[in-house]
């Protein structure tokens, strides 16, 4: 599936604690066409070899990451900011699921505005003052016994919903058969051949042959076989029949 370059929201990681988590978040971004990574004061400094190692094919995102001293400066040029959080913050803000958040994101991007999504620290998430910088909250429908996602998981879920909306949920490949459906003439010829071989093997009780033959035809018809299916099964029956004749001889 060819996908054009997409205008996408920026992913903003606030004080990420481990280079490996930054790398895995970058990989999740690359999976779904997100390319702009902003980092707010990474705990272990920057650049990070551990981030590059964990990125697994998303090195360009790591190399292009922009550093900021705090969340305020990281969102200064944005027109729409969404903050991800797993818990209620007591702030009068709209709350979206990742899927619902895609509508306002796409609307702003469509008119040339810049959008960013804030993700908090691995252990404690975003601080309330950082959430207060956002227009709305994005939270995840998770089991209440374990509501916290790791950083890369949260980025991946948001990226998945965005890419799904942008591409119309198009899959990278389909399951179409490589061989066309078998025409009726081919099917009937196969039935005649199979039933002839079964007659030779005394498979049918004489009084039940008509109904058993019809049932077998129905069975094969339910399979909606392709031309290749017919050739394969016919070849298998031929091999069995010829082997039986050789053994008899």
Automatic annotation (TrEMBL):
Organism name: Salinarimonas soli
Family: Belongs to the class IV-like SAM-binding methyltransferase superfamily. RNA methyltransferase TrmH family.
Protein known as: RNA methyltransferase
GO BP term, pick one: tRNA nucleoside ribose methylation
Superkingdom classification of source: Bacteria
Keyword S-adenosyl-L-methionine part of the UniProt annotation: yes
Gene Ontology molecular function: RNA binding; RNA methyltransferase activity
Cellular component aspect of the GO annotation: cytosol
InterPro entries: Alpha/beta_knot_MTases, RNA_MeTrfase_TrmJ/LasT, SpoU_MeTrfase, tRNA_m1G_MTases_N
Keywords recorded for this protein, A-Z: Methyltransferase, S-adenosyl-L-methionine, Transferase
Domain tRNA/rRNA methyltransferase SpoU type residue range list: 10-160
């Amino acid at each position: 599936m060819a996908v054009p370059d997409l205008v996408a929201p920026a992913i903003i990681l606030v004080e990420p604690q481990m280079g490996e988590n930054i790398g895995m978040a970058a990989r999740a971004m690359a999976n779904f066409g997100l390319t702009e990574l902003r980092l707010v004061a990474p705990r272990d400094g920057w650049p990070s070899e551990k981030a590059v190692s964990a990125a697994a094919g998303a090195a360009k995102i790591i190399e292009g990451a922009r550093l900021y001293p705090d969340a305020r400066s990281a969102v200064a040029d944005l027109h729409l900011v969404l903050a991800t959080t797993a818990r209620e913050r007591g702030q009068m803000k709209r709350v979206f699921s990742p899927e619902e958040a895609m509508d306002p994101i796409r609307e702003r991007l469509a008119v040339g505005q810049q959008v960013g999504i804030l993700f908090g620290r691995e252990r404690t998430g975003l601080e309330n003052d950082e959430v207060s910088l956002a227009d709305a909250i994005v939270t995840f429908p998770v089991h209440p016994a374990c509501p916290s996602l790791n950083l890369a998981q949260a980025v991946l879920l948001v990226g998945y919903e965005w890419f799904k909306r942008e591409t119309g949920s198009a899959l990278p490949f389909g399951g179409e058969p490589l061989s066309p459906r078998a025409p009726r003439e081919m099917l009937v010829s196969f039935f005649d051949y199979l039933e002839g071989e079964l007659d030779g093997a005394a498979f049918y009780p004489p009084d039940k042959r008509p109904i058993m033959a019809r049932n077998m035809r129905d069975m094969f018809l339910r399979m909606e076989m392709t031309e290749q299916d017919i050739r394969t099964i016919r070849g298998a029956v031929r091999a069995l029949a010829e082997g039986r004749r050789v053994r008899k001889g």
